[in-house]
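Fold this complex.
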Amino acid sequence: MISLERLTKRYPGQAEPAVLELDLVVPEGEIVVLVGPSGCGKTTTMKMINRIIEPTSGTIRLQGEDVTTSPPDELRRRIGYVIQQIGLFPHLTIAENVATVPRLLKWSTDRTRARVDELLDLVGMDPSVYRSRYPRELSGGQRQRVGVARALAADPPVMLMDEPFGAVDPIAREKLQNEFLRLQEDLGKTIVFVTHDIDEAIKMGDRIAVLREQSVIAQFDTPERILSDPADDFVAEFIGAGASLKRLGLARVRDFALAHWPVSSVSDGREAALAALQRSTADSVLLLDDQRRPVRWANRQDLSRSSTPLERVGMSVTAVVEPHATLAGALDAMVSSRVGGVVVVDGRGGYIGTVDMGVIMAAAETMRAAAHERALAVEQSDLRAADVAVDLEQEQERR
Amino acid sequence: MTAGLVAPEQAALLGEPGDGADSSRRWRRGLAVPLVLTALVVGLLVYVQTAELDDIEARLLDPNLLLDATLRHLQLVVVSTVIVVLLAVPLGILATRPSVRRFVPLIIGLGNVAQGVPSLGVLVLLAIYVDIGFTPAIAALVLYAFLPILRNTIVGLQQVDPFVIESGRGMGMSRGTVLRRLELPLAVPVVLAGIRTAAVINVGTATIATLVNAGGLGDVIYQGLVLNRLVVTVVGALLAAVLALFIDYLAGLLEQALRPKGL
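Structure:
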């Protein structure tokens, strides 16, 4: 756990402080993302935690221990540090780079070597291939992986990451983000992550602190809450257009009621399919094979063309998702398919249901309502707390 | 991911024959310089031995005398360059430390002044006010070669990627460790280039050491001029040129050997 108490940074010769009395708690094992417009002090805030920038006043606690004045070099060896520019040492091999902190901690050669190999493996780089390469021989994404491995070398409980995936192309970034989230599931590090990209914040953060100027917290909340219930206009504006779309990226298909379009088994024949279509208002029927796997989408016209065998009528089923897919993913598949629905299948490919526009709208409505209720609940508990405070005051006055 | 891993591997394998040819070409190019220089010196000696020289020329071009002058010249260059390295490199390191960084323009300015003063003038002043002989000649050469090494040390340290330093500090390296393990190794190529330049400059400048009776190839050149024997002057000048090229060549080898791998 990291806790910052009234943390302030004033630069000499500047009237306004860069960071003003920031209070923030980063819970154990969580990723807290500091996000905000450029110049809001988010990087300054992060660099005060390992005291690359010395705070002017305030307290930094690491797992309860006050580290505000402890020797900075020793403090930093306990904190993993990844920056956007990575800063790999170009004259040292990948193995030597990763071994930086173990070497500072005077680990034995054997222990260091084993750890380096373990870490390279962990970030998906074959140690026998990359151990003795130099940074310039790697691609941007690989360098970033080495940067993460290097930060993890001495297994620090806490990590600071300053736009760690900012310098790679969008496709590599997406991949690195996913890989890192997978790693974090096992590692459970306490992480402060800085970015200016709200989408990255939503994706990476267990909690997000939206910062305005001087690192003043505009809202500190889970991604869902930030999207569904922005605290003020600043946060709403920072999230930008498409908050509802972004929220769909957090919701999973499995959590919502699916639509059931007419289905019919190919082996039951044409008449059964037509009958199924007739019983519903939909204009297409989904044909399944004997294992209940989707085969074709067919409408009335397709079915009436008796010359075509049933397993080849209509259109093939292209839009298919599994239950753990996000609603945004399902929507994307839906838009790019020619049928107004996405087939949801289980792990074996068997039909479960369909996501159509109705499902998406209902899900959005559910999320909106839930957010509203939570907001109300918070307000009420605040009110109750206020009532209690008033009661206490009155009681004291009576005495 | 696996595809990403395999591709560079194959590229490296495919690249290897090319690299081999490259390095053998570099070897041939590397050998060309000493071969040409040796041929030049041998040609010069053969000419001196076989040409019809008058008494004065024969006396001045005695091979033993030429060898002595060359060795003396080399001594002037090596001693002065070593002294400059010992003075200018630490000063350059000091100048890039955060606490003194603001004095860098002043230090560079002084170096510029030292370089700007005509070497002949410095030498004459030293001869008048201090002494003549080896020591004042060395002093003049040191003054003159100071700037290239100082400037290259400063530039070499300044061009180190600040994010390399930040990540080093961020992982808990002390300032001293960052200097020793990161900054200095990364500055080595630029510092060596400065030393190379200074050494070559010194070969040229050392020819005027003869004016303060410090010897060297300047003796040969100067006597050729005074006694109006063109061939003597040309031989002295050619030997100085060969020496300069040879030192440049050696410094080049040193640069290649000491340049950190991976750069």
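Confidence is low (pLDDT under 50) at residues 1-20 of chain B.
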